[in-house]
Amino acid sequence: MGVTSQTPALALHGVGRMFGALAAVGSVTLSVAPGERRAVLGPNGAGKTTLFNLICGDFPPTSGRVELFGQDITALPPHHRARNGVGRTYQTSLLFNGLSVEDNLVIAVRGAKAGRFSWALPASGDRAKARELAERVRLSHLLKTEVAALSHGQRRQLEVGMALACDPRLLMLDEPAAGLSPVERPELLKLMKDLPRSITLIVIEHDMDIALPVADVVTVMKDGEVVVEGAPDAIENDPTVQAIYLGHGRAH
């Protein structure tokens, strides 16, 4: 299918996921434009991470359809979605603690390619790309540092770098600010704001102080459903959103 300026980067059509009798995600329909920055907010148990898993293929949906730039990817396995331009981070770190920053990035670069299980040594181009990714996420000075020695914020930066290894058209960040100190948060915000608009960005976040400055559009979920959608300033003052967050305009 040809991509036009009107083709959404991501379109979900009635996407849902059941775990037995539990509807983790109800029937979500949404559209994200190319280059858009979308924040997905909601309390614990709202279905945000499950929705991410349905988009990237970690779980198959029990209903609905997932489209990436007009292509139906509902039945594609995760590694095929990655090669089609879907990159993501996870709430729980999936880094190799005993390896260096550079080696983690090389593994991510190799993993984005066909033949990723080959015993061949990494090509020089793989290491060059790894160093380029390290520069993009401001870790060039730590290339040879073992991941176990990184701060929490630096680990988050590395996770973003690894997600960028597949040259994603759609980048999904799951709670990127979780556990970051007040000193580390500005660096994460700058990293997200500096991403080129050729990358469509979707961010799951609890903290509005992180999500709203980045977002063009905000989607709020509760109990597996989308309850509110709109511009950041409207969302911040929306009474439904304030009620979800126990009567406060900001979530902490």
What does this structure look like?
There is one protein chain. The protein is of the alpha/beta class and 252 residues long. The chain contains nine helices and ten strands. The protein has helices at residues 48-56, 78-83, 101-111, 124-136, 152-163, 185-193, 208-214, 232-236, 239-244; strands at 10-19, 22-32, 37-41, 63-68, 71-72, 86-88, 170-174, 200-204, 217-222, 225-230. Strands 6-7-8-3-9-10 form a six-stranded mixed sheet, sandwiched between helices. The chain has a four-stranded antiparallel sheet with strand order 2-1-4-5, with helices on one face. α6 (185-193) links the parallel β7 and β8 (200-204). α3 (101-111) packs across α4 (124-136) and α3 (101-111) packs parallel to α5. The chain starts with 9 loop residues before the first strand and ends in an 8-residue tail after the last helix. Mean pLDDT is 89; it is low at 247-252.
Radius of gyration: 18 Å
> Which percent range fits the helix content?
25-40%
Main sheet strand line-up: 6-7-8-3-9-10
The proportion of residues in beta strands is: 15-25%
Q: Main sheet, how many strands, which sense, barrel?
A: 6 strands, mixed
Number of helices: 9
Along the chain, the helix and strand elements come as EEEHEEHEHHHEHEHEEHH
Which residues sit in consecutive blocks of at least 5 with pLDDT less than 50? Answer: 247-252
First-last Cα distance: 43 Å
**Which of globular, elongated, flat, extended, rod-shaped describes the shape?**
globular
